[in-house]
Amino acid sequence: MVTDSGLQHAGVSLRLYGYEITDLLDLLEAAIRQATTGDGVRRGQAVTAFILSYRLLHRLRNLKSRPTCRLDLPVFRYIEDYEAWWWRLYREFVHSPGVNHPYGPGGF
User: Fold this and answer.
1) In which residue ranges of the chain is pLDDT below 50?
2) pLDDT digits (tens, 9 = 90+) for 76-93
């Protein structure tokens, strides 16, 4: 699990749509972990969680790249760590037995 202790110690609060980013990412991570261990129905839920978390990561990357962005270094590192974790888990899921991924092994 990606840890947000660096963000907590830095006193950083990053909110999107009124929710803490770290809380959203943790919820999506829990949904992915639970769904990837289940049957076909849960695997469908995992795909949904992957899509939602991918869209959130995409928004965070766009935020990071803005010249007016004032995010602290711990936030950047957290986003990068989460993105690396996401891609690793996504590759494991797509290549696991019984996955009928709607986008194929190439991804989103």
Assistant:
1) 1-12, 104-108
2) 777 778 788 778 877 777
Number of domains in the chain: 1
Q: pLDDT value at position 96? A: 65
In a domain, 76, yes or no: yes
Query: Distance of CA 47 to CAs 58, 73, 82, Å?
Result: 16, 30, 17
Give the type of residue at 85: W
* 107 domain residue, yes or no: no
Q: Are 33 and 46 in contact (CB under 8 A)?
A: no
The two tokens of residue 75 are: 């936030």
β partners of residue 19: 16
Residue 89 domain boundaries? 5-94
Q: Provide the 3-class DSSP secondary structure of residue 38.
A: coil
Answer yes or no: pTM beyond 0.85: no
Alpha-carbon distance 103 to 39, whole Å? 19
Residue 102, in any domain of the structure: no
Tell whether 108 is covered by a domain: no
Rg, C-alpha atoms of the chain:
15
